[in-house]
Amino acid sequence: MLQTAFNALALGSVYALMAVGIGLVFGVLRLVNFAYGQLIMAGAYTLAIGSEHSWPQWASVLACFGVVIGLSLLLEVGLFRPLRGASPATMLVATFAVAFLLQSIALLKFGSLVKTASIFPGLFDPVGHGQFETVRKITIVAIVAAMVALAALTLLLAKTTIGLHMRAAAADFRTARLLGVRANEVVTLAVVISGVLAAAVAVILVVEDPFVEPQFALRDTIIVLVGVVVGGLDRLWTATLGGFAIGVATSVFTDELSSAHSVYVDSFVFGLVIIVLLLRPEGLFAPFRARTVERA
Amino acid sequence: MRLAARLPEVVVPALLVAAVALLGTFTTRANQIHFRAALVDVAIVVGLYVFIGNSGVLSFGQISFVAVGAFAAGLMTISVGVKRGIMPTLFPVLKDHSLGNVESLLLAAGLGAVFALIVGLPLMRLSGLAAGIATFAVLGITHNVLFNYTKIGPGATALTNIPETTGLLQGMIGAVIAIAVAWIYQLSRFGRMLRATREDPAAAQAVGVSIHRQRLLAFTLSGALCGFAGGLFVHQAGTITTEDVYLNLTFLTLAMLVVGGVGSLLGAVVGALLVSGVNSFLVTAEGGIHILGMKIDLTDGTHLVVLGAAMAVVLVLRPSGLTGGREFHLPRRLARGRG
To answer: Nearest CA of chain A to the CA of B317: how many Å?
Structure first.
């Protein structure tokens, strides 16, 4: 019971971090970044290479952040910027193409066999004895890391000028620009923050599951993408809650379904998603308001 | 516009398909597989286009209809004796009956349509991202069930021993049927009503068009075409796993549609043939080929990298696809000459 609760909280926290990363970029660019999981995968491979060459752990982690942020910026300059204002379908398929590209590069370079990344192996130990034997340290670390990151981000958005600019850009990009918000600055910051979050998620996921392969974090990304839409992508906090909720739901289904049914976890989660979307197409956590005619 | 003037919209894509099939007859037996696969890709992408192109709603779920059609057509054409041997857990009704080739394709189309109708009835109320994610959830559930439920299929193992009946001729006929159905639909009043909802939902509703009903119709038709294409797919390959009709195929076919241009039948056909062709070329090049006296020998796996990069570049340079979403029209002078 305790284990189920902690697992659910931890997975929810990690998914919430990913949801923020996806939601921030969506806020300013109206772009669903499907390649987010491959950024995490790139970070995970960096960690694996680090432990292969026995770099010091801080160097591996630093390299992981560097690679992921660098790739994010590359994506922004090479893809997001030229596509700014294109139709959502085009942007989504373009990020598919990038996801596909990064995954194929990983397959070409590292093969389909798993690479083992041993980073902070001590975190895999249980927290305590008795009842706490089933709870691992990384679970607590994940929850704390998510809370710290979310608090920092909330402060940034609420208390700084650039945070205000970002919120303005997310509410109405054109008007914000007319009022003097620098578009590129705001977008770049959003992309960098989302990269930092992806790198942090990569570290957490690698500690939890040190076997890195080209499809690393793919399933998680798909579930989070579903989660942010279910929560409501129009606002950052609803998207984050959506990510958290789907993480909790997935974890609880995984732990609680009997083994005969546990293979159908995805069906249960997706079935729940369909029901929620039908009842609340605007997003589960979106505020109630008069139904508007759909936007063209 | 008079019907004759719009005929090139269907004739040109059909001729492209026929040309590819004809070209296929001149190649070696080993290379023919690429041409057959390209024809099947056309059928699938046209199936996607009927819904996504005409409604403007992004759906990731159409490949689940391909999957259902493919598994149904494959399962029902394997001989009864073999089925009893390799899949003893099947429902008796599936295990003890077998169908011919054409019947299996009709069954695939019918199942695709019924499945799409049932799914679409609630889901077609959604639009935008919610519709995209909900249809994706359908794909996830379809894959999850097909992968685990061994009473309706092979589960995690490959379905094999399927008669390979989709040759170049059948592939071509199948693709042309899909193109013709898609064209007739988009000419019909239903197709026009759906396109009206795509351009301006509020105005379309104001003149009495039911968005839900029109989308549902297109979704069901698209389901039928996708199921049918799934039947062609499985009879082309002769073997299938649940992974063959899941994420990669979804992304690849959507990319074909977007690269060609979501808004037109021509775009769907051109995108499918082009991406499929480039893909096949690169796969062959990985085995080493000679072109114009140069020997090209790529590392295994290069084709995926090049394909991903090429798709991204095309989308950056031409965000509305190679055809820009336009149908084929004769140059004005020629069209007037014909009256």
So the answer is: 8
Residues 6+ apart with CB under 8 A from A59: A50
Q: Which helix (H) or strand (E) holds B296?
A: strand B294-296
Give which of A196, A108, A192, A206 is closest to A149, Cα–Cα.
Answer: A196
Residues A69, A70, A75: CA angle, nearest 5 degrees? 95
Which amino acid, residue B82? V
Yes or no, beta carbons of B134 and A277 under 8 Å apart: yes
Mutation pick from B54, B135, B141, B248 vs chain A, by most beta carbons of A within 10 Å, is B141
Q: Compute the 3-state secondary structure of chain B and give helix, strand, coil in percent, each to the nearest 5.
A: 75, 0, 25
Nearest CA in chain A to B196: A296
User: Within an 8 Å CB–CB cutoff, is residue B202 touching chain A?
Assistant: yes
Q: Do A83 and B315 lie within an 8 Å CB cutoff? A: yes
A53 class by beta-carbon count within 10 Å (0-12 exposed, 13-18 middle, 19+ buried): exposed
* Per-residue model confidence as pLDDT tens digits over A242-258: 999 999 988 888 887 77
Please indicate if any CB of chain A lies within 8 Å of the CB of B183. Answer: no
Contact B145 A267 (CB under 8 A): yes
The ipTM, to two decimals, is 0.83
Residues 6 or more apart whose Cβ sits within 8 Å of residue B85: none
pTM of the shown model: 0.86
Domain ranges of chain B: 3-243
A272–chain B nearest CA distance, Å = 9
Task: Give contacts of A295 with chain B, Cβ < 8 Å.
Answer: 128
For the cut 80, the answer to whether the pLDDT of residue B289 exceeds it is: no
Task: Identify from B150, B305, B320 which residue to disrupt to test chain A contact, counting A C-beta atoms within 10 A and taking the largest count.
Answer: B305
Which residue from A83, A93, A104 is facing B304, i.e. has the nearest CB?
A104
Check if the beta carbon of residue A205 is closer than 8 Å to that of residue A37: no
Cβ count near B210 (within 10 Å): 13
Whether residue A137 has pLDDT greater than 60: yes
CA distance B152 to chain A (A): 15
Report yes or no: B127 at the A interface, CB cutoff 8 Å: yes
Interchain CB distance below 8 Å, A270 and B309: no
**d(C-alpha B219, C-alpha B203), whole Å:** 21
Name the phi and psi angles at B289, rounded to 5: -135, 165
Q: Which residues of A touch B140 (CB under 8 A)?
A: 222, 266-267, 270
Under the banding of pLDDT at 50, 70 and 90, the label for residue B66 is very high
In chain A, domain spans: 2-215
Structure token digits, residue B140: 């996830």
What's chain A look like in SS3?
CHHHHHHHHHHHHHHHHHHHHHHHHHHHHCCCCCCHHHHHHHHHHHHHHHHHCCCCHHHHHHHHHHHHHHHHHHHHHHHHHHHCCCCHHHHHHHHHHHHHHHHHHHHHHHCCCCEECCCCHHHHCECCCHHHHHCEHHHHHHHHHHHHHHHHHHHHHHHCHHHHHHHHHHHCHHHHHHCCCCHHHHHHHHHHHHHHHHHHHHHHHHHHCCEECCCCCHHHHHHHHHHHHHHCCCCHHHHHHHHHHHHHHHHHHHHHCCHHHHCCHHHHHHHHHHHHHHHCCCCCCCCCCCCCCCCC
Asked if A294's CB is within 8 angstroms of B305's CB, the reply is: no
A100 and B251 within 8 Å at the Cβ level: the answer is yes
